[in-house]
Design brief:
Blueprint: H1 22-27, H2 32-52, H3 61-87, E1 108-110, H4 124-127, E2 135-137, H5 160-165, E3 172-173, E4 181-183, E5 186-188, H6 196-199, E6 209-217, E7 225-229, E8 240-249, E9 257-262, E10 265-271, E11 280-287, H7 292-295, E12 299-304, E13 317-326, E14 337-341, H8 346-349, E15 355-357, E16 363-366, E17 373-384, E18 418-423, E19 426-431, E20 461-464, H9 469-472, E21 478-485, E22 487-489, E23 495-497, E24 505-515, E25 523-524, E26 528-530, E27 535-544, E28 550-570, E29 575-593, E30 598-613, E31 619-624, E32 627-635, E33 640-656, H10 672-679, E34 681-699, E35 707-722, H11 723-726, E36 733-743, E37 746-754, E38 757-762, E39 776-778, E40 783-786
Length: 793
């Protein structure tokens, strides 16, 4: 296939003649049906052009970087179109509520729209734009994200998304693009395509599965599901556990954050998709083998999915959670003990054990740390909510009052966040979070039917605390704390880490511990901690309009940090030097334009974590989170509000050695085409990229005239690194690749490669692959069949 150059993606405004006279058509509702069709066609054209950037199977990193510049050009187009909208903006006096107005809950109601279009109004909290008019706080319930109510909230909604799927009466399949996982009967692609019965099939036809939960979440604030788990007799010596979370929903509802616990310990964090009138369904299959400590003994299972229904919020979440046990050729080496860092409300009170910062103090005093530990790693789960959901778009603290006279207070503490792990008051490690965007985030049309990166599986960061074991194994109580901080700047060029952030961050932690024999006691030297304050630089430039009012803000943020902890560790079998080090960098170039109605962020976060234990192969994790986001809000004289948004982001991971989580190599050790290769691999690489554009028009007088559309392209490449490759001597080997394009709620293309060979290139999920020279293939249930070469049902 012909390779497309970045030049091919340059935008020529002559291609968009259909936008001439756009202001008259927006003001006159008679033109809206034709406008919907025209903008839908443009959206599809953008989608095709974005998709073409991934056609070359051998695209290297430099070309990926150039492709990201292509979407920036599209983002600039959106700014231009937003400026066209602004040119016809009538004079008005917008109002914004201050942060304190949203301290308890994070939903909204536009009082001009009435109950028929509940939560239709949009503010800075929802699409990281500034202006909002006539908003009244929505008292019904908090939501997982302070975002638009789906356009399906009106029975006769004319949204383009609804039109695209309106003829379908069966639930729409929603999915997260992810690397395959291993089931007892083969590969599992997209949990939404795999039934529990297929997942549980083993080679001899038997199954070993247990149902953990069957529950409908309707009125569930403060009322989590509580059940009991008993290890099934058939699990025997199984080394692998796959958990399947399946959900159906119908109607109108916000996206919700959900957390599963074993007693006081968080096990799985996810979020929901926003339902449609005809219903949606999804499944997510997760390898939970690293939690084997819990699976081997009876547990109290708590699943917290806060939801609430009203006359307009009609969607309930009908869920099933199962676990399947089997023995795989390659498996994790699970910890022998797991200790929670949590609010500890599960075992005694049957309530969720998450800390909510900054309202609570996320601290545990561990009084019974095992004295025979030879390795320990802390995982941290952290999610920004309410005022902190779009933390990556927040303003510098010195700029939060920039538009106070016209629009209210911006969310502050900068677009930088650091999650800190403290042991006895000393810094043990940090996590600089990846910006997860939920399915109602920014503009919901981005995320249907393909959700955002990590939306169904919010990943945890890892901090190796093995250098602390000589101190932790002394038999005394020790304090573990989790903090979340941003930046407090002086209005000029310097800043320090803030003492707090907005409300709220939901955090927990787990201590994974590997142990020697019961009689052994770990000793050694006290940890030597080098954790100087980060190097921070900021700048901001304020611009005023012709009336002297604040109009534009341009700002930059740069943060870098290095830390290391080292000790001599004496365990049952060895005396070694143990160390943990981190090197991190964050930059952000942000802009507010047009009185805060237009916002743009260019963000890059990079880091490298290294853990060593004597002469053993070190564990390294290198990561990069580049992101471009633009949003434009315009309110016209007739009360109509339009929103344009562009997002281009990636999550890039390069891991050598083994931490807590499964490596992802297990599926490829199970098939002949890659089984021998996997034995030589020492690490993995993963590049996950999403980009897209979305548009929303809200009619404050008649919700039936409101509509939205969007397109998103996602590319995922998962590779394995040999021991030599880990040293930079050889490139990694592609194990899995997938590229998906969706437009207006429908999938338009899906291309897949397994172990470097094409396996799927179909128009809909789950189609049988026929007549292809594939190393492997996928049947209608999404299960990889080793040696599949086409043909047959």
């Amino acid at each position: 296939m012909e390779k497309r150059s970045v030049d091919d993606l340059e935008v020529d405004m002559d291609e968009f003649d259909e936008f001439e006279g756009l202001d008259e058509r927006l003001e006159d509702t008679r033109f809206w049906p034709g406008l919907k069709r025209t903008m839908d066609e443009s959206c599809r054209s953008w989608s095709r052009r974005l998709e073409q950037r991934y056609d070359d199977d051998d695209e290297d990193e430099e070309e990926q970087s150039r492709s990201r510049m292509g979407i920036v050009q599209v983002g600039l187009l959106v700014i231009v179109l937003g400026s066209i909208f602004l040119a016809f903006l009538d004079s008005f006096s917008p109002t914004r509520h201050s942060n304190s107005y949203y301290e308890e809950e994070d939903g909204y109601r536009d009082k001009d729209l009435g109950s028929e279009w509940e939560a239709g109004g949009v503010g800075k909290e929802e699409v990281h734009v500034h202006i909002v008019r006539d908003l009244e706080y929505r008292q019904d319930s908090p939501a997982a994200s302070a975002t638009f109510l789906p356009l399906d909230s009106t029975a006769s909604s004319s949204s383009l998304t609804a039109v695209a799927t309106g003829a379908v009466t069966t639930p729409q399949r929603v999915f997260q693009v992810d690397a395959p996982v291993l089931g007892a009967g083969g590969f599992i692609f997209d949990g939404d395509n795999t039934t529990a019965s297929t997942l549980g099939a083993s080679e001899n036809g038997t199954t070993c599965s247990v149902t953990l939960m069957e529950f409908s979440f309707a009125e569930s604030f403060g009322k989590p599901f509580v059940g009991n788990y008993t290890p099934p007799a058939c699990m025997g010596n199984s080394n692998t556990v796959m958990m399947n979370f399946s959900v159906t929903s119908k109607g109108t509802q916000f996206d919700r954050l959900a957390v599963m616990y074993f007693g006081d310990t968080e096990a799985f964090r996810t979020s929901t998709a926003e339902p449609k009138r005809n219903g949606i369904a999804w499944e997510y299959v997760k390898d939970m083998s690293h939690m084997m400590y819990f699976w081997k003994s009876p547990q109290k299972v708590i699943f917290d999915l806060p939801n609430q229904t009203t006359a307009n919020l009609t969607g309930t979440y009908n869920t099933t959670l199962t676990a399947t046990f089997f023995t795989a050729k390659q498996a994790v080496s699970p910890a022998s003990m797991i200790i929670p860092i949590s609010a500890r409300l599960g075992i005694n009170a049957s309530q969720p054990s998450v800390f909510s910062l900054p309202a609570t103090n996320a601290t545990n005093i561990i009084t019974s740390f095992p004295r025979n530990a030879n390795r320990a790693i802390v995982t941290i789960s952290s999610t920004g909510q309410a005022n902190e959901e779009f933390w990556w778009s927040n303003a510098l603290q010195s700029d939060v009052l920039t538009y106070n006279s016209s629009g209210g207070t911006l969310f502050g503490f900068s677009p930088f966040r650091e999650v800190q792990l403290m042991i006895d008051g000393q810094m043990a490690g940090v996590q600089w979070p990846f910006p997860v965007i939920f399915t109602g985030g920014v503009v919901p049309a981005f995320w249907s039917p393909m959700v955002g990166i990590d939306a169904f599986d919010l990943k945890e960061g890892e901090v190796d605390i093995s250098p602390w074991l000589p101190m932790l194994c002394d038999g005394n109580p020790h304090t573990f704390s989790i903090n979340v901080v941003g930046l407090d700047d002086n209005g000029s060029t310097s800043a320090t880490l803030s003492k707090t952030v907005g409300s709220s961050w939901l955090v927990t932690g787990k201590i994974f511990i590997w142990q020697d024999s019961e009689t052994s006691i770990t000793t050694g030297t006290a940890p030597q901690v080098s954790a100087s304050p980060p190097i921070i630089a900021v700048s901001q430039v304020l611009g005023k309009n012709s009336t002297g009012a604040n109009d534009t803000v341009q700002y930059t943020v740069s943060v870098s940090r290095k830390l290391s902890i080292t000790s001599t560790l004496t365990t049952q079998n060895q005396s070694v030097t143990s160390s943990w080090s981190q090197t991190l960098s964050h930059t952000d170039n942000g802009t507010f334009l047009a009185g805060g109605n237009i916002q743009t962020n260019f963000i890059t976060t990079t880091g490298r974590d290294v853990s060593t234990m004597g002469a053993a192969t070190p564990y390294t994790c290198s990561y990069s989170f580049p992101m471009f986001a633009n949003s434009t809000a315009v309110q016209l004289a007739n009360g109509t509000t339009t929103f344009n948004a562009t997002i281009n982001r990636s999550k890039i991971m390069d891991i050598n050695g083994r931490g807590v989580a499964p490596t992802g190599l297990q599926p490829f050790a199970a098939i002949p085409q890659s089984a021998d290769l996997v034995m030589t691999l020492a690490g993995t690489t993963r590049v996950d990229s999403q980009n897209g554009t979305a548009f929303l028009l809200l009619d404050s007088q008649n919700g039936n005239n409101s509509f939205s559309f969007g397109n998103t392209v996602q590319s995922l490449r998962f590779g394995g690194k040999s021991a030599a490759g880990a040293l930079g001597m050889e490139p990694d080997v592609e194990l899995y690749f997938r590229n998906v394009a969706v437009n207006n709620g429908s999938m338009v293309s899906d291309t897949e490669r397994i172990v470097g060979k094409s396996s799927v290139g179909v128009e809909s999920i789950g189609d049988v692959v026929r007549g292809m020279d594939a190393a492997v293939g996928r049947n209608a249930q999404g299960v990889l069949m080793p040696g599949f070469g086409g043909g047959g049902e």
